[in-house]
Amino acid sequence: MKIEQIYTGCLAEAAYYIESNGEAAIIDPLREVDPYLKKAQKDGAKIKYIFETHFHADFVSGHIDLSEKSGAPIVYGPTAQTNFDAHIAIDGEEFKIGALTIKVLHTPGHTPESTTFLLLDENAKPYCIFSGDTLFIGDVGRPDLAQKGDLTIEDMAGTLYDSLHNKILTLPDEVLVYPAHGAGSACGKNMSKETFDTLGHQKEVNYALKATSKEQFIKEVTDGILPPPQYFAKNAAINKNGYESVDQVYQKGLKPLAAQEFEELVNHTGAVILDTRDPQVFAKGFIPSSVNIGLNGQFAPWVGALITDLTQPIVLVGEADKAQEAITRLARVGYDATIGYLEGGIEAWRAAGKDLDTISSITAAEFEAIVNKNPDVNALDVRKPGEYEAEHLENTLTRPLDYINEWTTEINPEKTYYIHCAGGYRSMIAASILKARGVENVIDIAGGYGALKDTGLQRTDFACPSKAMKATV
Asked: Which long-range contacts (CB under 8 A, 24 or more apart) does 66-75 make?
């Protein structure tokens, strides 16, 4: 028996490869499917089933491509409806993988079709569950993504409670829990950095599982949920309705463009210039109107949160050998419209004599000196609301990056804005977007709040009514 968790940190997503006696199954595959095919080939195994725990909202699954390339059927749980061929399992249905058995446990609540797959070992003993977004390590799935008709978020949370208590918590404590996501995913609010655990330990430490009543569970699970990123509903629809092959996406996107060709294509198509370099490298010189979202961070989720049109043409600027990686990550969240990349990177643009723009970046100590001279500076904290509420500088406004498309209307392009996040990744995204939208005087605070905490600037752990105005969302 082989069970391999294939964890993709930049997406906080876990897919699973299971093999026994020459037969294999894949659970919740990512968009690019060759790694799964190669694993099976290496093991001399045939992929027999592709299991989907639900219609994922935060990434586009590779189920369709994998099914076409392997011949394996796609299996969803009860109530799922697809626009492609799939086996819709019934509750309690069992599937054989070599000497192993996978049993369907319908566990609605996160979504109506959400399903947990229970793996029984060679002795028919419960060994682990692949819980999708029903049960995470430290959390449970958010219940606000798939409300229909008269169903409320509280109704879905109540259904989730029933699923957990009737289907999952009745299993032996030693059963391993393998979820679809970990810390960093927007599918929950309190996920652990650990990517698996025993069910028994989760009963002891998971706040949602410790709720003493259904009413308490509903209150705690629904309290403090931020609105989902705008791309969630779009990705769920793609997973339900189908998509073009990732091979076609590569064919469109892996087109090297000389500087002049790049410029003409942008002018003709209105493509977004997406610069994937590290923030401080980007700040020193970039193509005007570029948006910086670095590959060395949560690149795909931030693209999904900030670029509202999945069909928006995109051209890439970055390191020469990273174009395919960027296209792959974009495709994982449904952005299939990459139409090329700048051959030779920013140096080729510079060599062609094209204009470059810059963003000023100052140290935390330099910002402290500025504030000491003028306490009324316009300073924007672009961290999430919960981060800001936990602790922040008194003279900063909370303007979460997640909602920049809503609050940029408040920005006066004639003023100067100092921007920080936790470490510098998100602040440069915000600064680049504001710069692209005509706000010339944006200054990044390098090192973010991590560096600012070491200054003498006054901090507070509660929202200041006069300055800490939350963005309207």
From this structure: 66/26, 66/29, 66/33, 66/36, 66/37, 68/245, 69/33, 69/37, 70/36, 70/37, 70/40, 70/46, 71/47, 72/25, 72/26, 72/47, 72/48, 73/49, 74/50, 75/49, 75/50, 75/51
Q: And the tokens for 276?
A: 């994937």
The whole-number pLDDT of residue 464 equals 41
Taking the model in full, what pTM does it have? 0.91
Dist. CA 298–CA 467, nearest whole Å: 29
Dihedral of alpha carbons 32, 36, 37, 38, sign:
positive
* 408: CATH: 3.40.250.10
Q: Do 185 and 256 share a structural domain?
A: no
Q: In this predicted structure, what is the pLDDT of residue 150?
A: 75
Alpha-carbon distance of 157 to 143, in angstroms, equals: 5
**Which of 351, 386, 409 lies at the terminal end of a domain, its last residue?**
351
pLDDT digits (tens, 9 = 90+) for 228-264: 889 999 999 999 999 999 999 999 999 999 999 999 9
* Alpha carbons 291 and 34: distance in angstroms, whole number: 30
Identify whether 465 is part of a domain: no
Residues recorded for the chain:
473
For residue 342, the enclosing domain spans 246-351
Integer Cα distance of 268 and 264 in angstroms: 6
